[in-house]
Design brief:
About 30% of the residues lie in helices and about 35% in strands. By secondary structure, the protein is an alpha/beta fold. The strands form three sheets. Strands 2-1-3-4-13-12-11 form a seven-stranded mixed beta sheet. Strands 6-5-7-10 form a four-stranded mixed beta sheet. Glutamine binds next to helix 5.
């Protein structure tokens, strides 16, 4: 079966994720396609979704207005694999607060029982790269690119912690749902995108 992977294209790092996911599909010789998605109809036909990094308040507000927030939530709760990157991980969470302004009442998908601290490592000018590992999914070394990145400050009992940087949680998983603080699409290493499209293929078959 051919898989249909979408990158939510409301705002953020869309093109880079399309390229990385396409490269992952090609390298794994999976039959599938990757496209931008925005509308409830486009999202309805997906086998897997990437919610890119960007600005979570914008992604949340616009997806609420066009009805795609609800469709995403239903599909993910029914088993569709999703990779939420940075702002995308914030979208997957239950509660977000900002390091400076405190709790934000932004629209969220409320899929992962995690609490997030937005901008946990500082603002844009404090962006950095750091070597991290995601051993439990067989990625022992990965170059994490952190841009106004959140960290996970609290996890429910059903959440698997995939990676930490210093003492901060920077990647989590629950079943088919993965969230990362860092931006895998901004490196040449497509191992995380490969892991994700494999999940999509397994779930679809
Ligand atoms: N700080 C942004 C937010 O809160 C996320 C940054 C990013 O996705 N690179 O939405």
């Amino acid at each position: 079966m051919s898989i249909n992977v979408g990158v939510l294209s409301i705002q953020g790092d869309v093109e880079e994720n399309i390229l990385s996911a396409k490269a992952a599909i090609d390298e794994l010789k999976i039959d599938g396609k990757v496209a931008e998605v925005k509308t409830p109809d486009e999202i309805s036909s997906l086998d897997g979704l990437i919610i890119p990094g960007g600005e979570s308040t914008t992604i949340g507000a616009l997806s609420l207005v066009n009805g795609s927030l609800k469709v995403m939530k239903d599909k993910i709760e029914n088993g569709m694999p999703v990779l939420g990157i940075c702002a995308g991980m914030i979208m997957l969470s239950k509660t977000a607060s900002d390091r400076v302004i405190g709790t934000t009442n932004q629209p969220l998908l409320d899929i992962l029982d995690i609490t997030l601290e937005r901008n946990s490592f500082g603002r844009q000018k404090e962006s950095f790269e750091a070597s991290i590992s995601l051993d439990s999914i067989d990625i022992p070394k990965f170059n994490g690119v952190f841009i106004r990145a959140p960290s996970v400050s609290g996890v429910g009992s059903d959440i698997e912690v995939l990676s930490k940087l210093d003492e901060k949680i920077v990647a989590v998983k629950k079943g088919n749902v993965i969230g990362t603080s860092f931006h895998p699409e901004l490196t040449q290493d497509i191992s995380l995108h490969k892991y994700f499209v494999s999940l999509v293929q397994q779930q679809a078959n």
